[in-house]
Task: inverse folding
């Protein structure tokens, strides 16, 4: 029984502690349903209690490959089930996070073995004497703590938001679990086989060839764990991109509907305002007073911005009402006819997002003279260039060549710029953005061919 508790302390409880530390990191942003804390506390207590009979099994069969595999597989499955019970996430989401936690635990363990086996080969630890076990534990836990911090900042931190909202590619998840499973099998096989070749103490070998073989296995296992991380990152990023594409398709459908509504509304307003101005002119001719101010106030509703594209005419007329209310000046030089290769829904979404971002940036600027947006669309040398410039206050952070949203929740905002780039690439174009002083610059370049470029641009 003493041996069972010894194995429980240095093998089972230690493994569970390390695995739960990484689970805490990977589940940090997971949903927490009602009763989460008592479920979590009960799960941890049950896990460590379950470790006692597992330690007994380990004392009987832990020196065999299949026995060791069953021990770690059983504990891993128990952690998955308790995580699924404690957190308000689907089973495959819990499996995904637990798989990453196990890969992180195994990676740290293998990195330590690489360090320790190398130290034993050069007899670095021979001077520790009677306090060898104490020094070993101190070094191991210090190494574990440093590696845990490195894993968090190197991988977990960048994946938290993405893991929170992504849906999973089950094929890629299956490959990730498979790679981790093969790694665990190989690790169990290595540990059992090399433990029989050790002399004096664990991971010290009498023959240099054993050191080389042991280190080769350690490096291979560590590389497999890194591959698990890379596969996981690919899964999350791919699903996030798919989510963005779905959002973009929805935005385009909404833009098509909005365009039809806006066109009908603006046409009706223009007709009515034209009639009102005509009648006011008749009244003024008969000696009416104070009518000029009234005519000026309604003139904005009878304005038309000519871009060469009926769709953009509607969009800019619609935005001009907002600009009038907020003292924003839009300067346009647009050759809208050159944009005919872009479908109507995509075109409305492209320029709608572009203008919305610019209007959002300038509307709260204190100085009215800086509430200016410049927009140019022109063709030259087989290229179609869309240039937008606007002032802004504050600072902008960029990621992957795009400015990050200035709104608080980046998980649900910031699709506008990514949508612009997706739309540009859909038509073979490319988007770039940069800041110079207090001016934001956005450029989109399309290849349209020499014939299209030869027509001079029109000013509006």
Result:
């Amino acid at each position: 029984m003493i041996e069972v508790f010894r194995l429980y302390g240095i093998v089972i409880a230690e493994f569970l502690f390390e695995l739960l530390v990484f689970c805490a990191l990977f589940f940090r942003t997971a949903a927490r349903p009602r009763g989460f804390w008592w479920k979590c506390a009960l799960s941890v207590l049950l896990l460590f209690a379950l470790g006692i009979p597992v330690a007994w099994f380990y004392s009987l069969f832990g020196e065999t490959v299949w026995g060791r595999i069953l021990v770690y597989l059983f504990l891993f499955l128990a952690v998955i089930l308790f995580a699924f019970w404690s957190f308000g996430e689907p089973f495959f989401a819990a499996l995904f996070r637990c798989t990453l936690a196990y890969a992180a635990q195994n990676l740290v363990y293998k990195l330590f073995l690489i360090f320790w086996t190398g130290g034993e080969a050069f007899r670095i630890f021979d001077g520790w004497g009677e306090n060898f076990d104490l020094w070993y534990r101190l070094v191991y836990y210090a190494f574990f703590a440093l590696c845990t911090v490195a894993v968090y900042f190197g991988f977990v931190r960048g994946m938290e938001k993405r893991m929170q909202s992504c849906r999973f590619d089950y094929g890629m998840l299956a490959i990730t679990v498979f790679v981790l499973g093969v790694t665990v099998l190989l690790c169990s096989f290595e540990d059992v086989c090399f433990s029989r070749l050790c002399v004096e103490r664990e991971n010290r070998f009498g023959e240099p060839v054993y050191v080389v073989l042991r280190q080769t296995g350690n490096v291979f296992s560590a590389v497999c764990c890194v591959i698990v991380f890379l596969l996981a990152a690919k899964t999350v990023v791919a699903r996030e991109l798919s989510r963005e594409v779905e959002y973009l398709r929805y935005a385009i459908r909404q833009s098509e509907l909005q365009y039809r509504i806006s066109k009908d509304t603006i046409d009706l307003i223009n007709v009515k305002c034209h009639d009102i101005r005509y009648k006011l002119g008749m009244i003024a001719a008969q000696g009416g007073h104070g009518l000029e101010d009234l005519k000026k106030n309604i003139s904005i509703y009878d304005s038309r911005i000519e871009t060469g594209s009926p769709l953009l005419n509607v969009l800019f007329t619609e935005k001009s009402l907002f600009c009038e209310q907020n003292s924003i000046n839009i300067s346009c030089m647009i050759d809208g006819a050159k944009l005919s290769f872009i479908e109507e829904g995509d075109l409305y979404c492209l320029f709608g997002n572009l203008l919305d971002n610019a209007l959002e940036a300038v509307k709260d600027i204190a100085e009215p003279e800086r509430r200016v947006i410049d927009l140019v669309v022109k063709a030259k040398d087989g290229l179609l260039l869309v240039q937008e410039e606007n002032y802004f206050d504050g600072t902008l952070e960029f990621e992957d060549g795009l400015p990050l949203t200035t709104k608080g929740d980046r998980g649900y905002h910031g699709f506008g710029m990514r949508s612009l780039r997706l739309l540009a690439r859909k038509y073979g174009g490319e988007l770039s953005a940069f800041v110079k002083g207090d001016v934001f610059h956005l450029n989109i370049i399309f290849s349209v061919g020499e014939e299209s470029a030869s027509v001079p641009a029109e000013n509006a």
